[in-house]
Each structure stands twice: as structure tokens, then as C-alpha cells.
Amino acid sequence: MVEQHGCADADVSVNYGSQMAGKRIGLIVSSASSGISGVVSDAKRLIPDGDFYSTNLWIRSAQTSNCHSLIADWLTEIGYQDVAVGDVNEDGQVDIADVTALIDSILSGATANQSVADVNGDGQVDIADVTSLIDTILSK
Q: How confident is the model at residue 130 (pLDDT cuts 50, 70, 90)?
């Protein structure tokens, strides 16, 4: 989260900016102010390598009672899917097919969706994630 006012900017940039690199980022701002362009600019400055959705959601104070449907509509508009960590092939299941897809991705150098492929959460997609994924499947 980026706070437009206060000291959070330095904390976000130093502590989280690099961790957010390459990840899909959607901005939802609830404000009575005149817009969200400043928040969007700050977020892109603090996370220069973030993969920002092109559409952001600004919920004005008069719209808060309708915020659930606004968010649902926005998520549909940006094509968001709730994909579980480990669901590398994004078929809705975490199974042996994901292990194969993860190994193929690592060996080919292809870019897997890091938010689902970084199973152990260390910021890298590598053989350790394959081991973690197999452990996850076997522990079901």
C-alpha cells in the first residue's frame, strides 16, 4: 500500500519496491480528493519495475456504499483471476501437471507467473520451488 501523505514512501521504496518488481499491481483508491493520478504516479515511482494494470479504481466518498460491486466490476474489467500459489498452469488445481509446468518453465528459461510459481516465497523461481510444490501436493 502506498500512502500519499506521510512517511510511508521511503519505507515502501526501500523495503518493498524490489519485492514488487515484475508483480501485477492494481490500485484501488478510496478518497474524497480530486483524483488518483498522484497516487498512481507515486506508486510507479516507488515500484518502477512493477507490472501495473492499465486501469485503476477510484472509489469516491459518495460511492462507498456501492464499493463491493465497483470492485467486482473492476476485477472483471482487468481480467483478474484468483490463482492459487502453485497453480503454475492456471487450470484451477494444484497437482502434478503444475510440477511439470514449473520444471518446463525453469528449464526453458520461460517466465512463469512469479506470484504462483514462487511456491516457497523467496523471490526466485527455481528448483527449490519444485520441491516445495511437490511437498504441497503430497501434504493434501
A: very high
Helix/strand/coil for 28: strand
pTM over 0.90: no
> What is the domain range of residue 116?
96-138
Instruction: Examine the domain organization and report whether 67 and 122 are in the same domain.
Output: no
- Please identify which residue in the block is written with the cell numbers 488445481: 93
Task: Please give the Cα distance from 66 to 130 (Å, whole number).
Answer: 42
Extract the C-alpha cell encoding 28. Answer: 484501488
DSSP 8-state secondary structure symbol assigned to residue 54: S
Flag whether 17 is in a domain. yes
Question: Is residue 76 within a helix (H) or strand (E), and if so which, with residue range?
Answer: helix 67-78
Q: Is residue 30 part of a domain?
A: yes
Residue 45 phi, psi (nearest 5)? -70, -40
Q: Are 117 and 126 in contact (CB under 8 A)?
A: no
Residue whose cell numbers read 519444485: 130
Least confident of 9-18, 24-33, 75-84: 9-18
The residue written with cell numbers 516457497 in the block is 120
136, pLDDT greater than 80:
yes
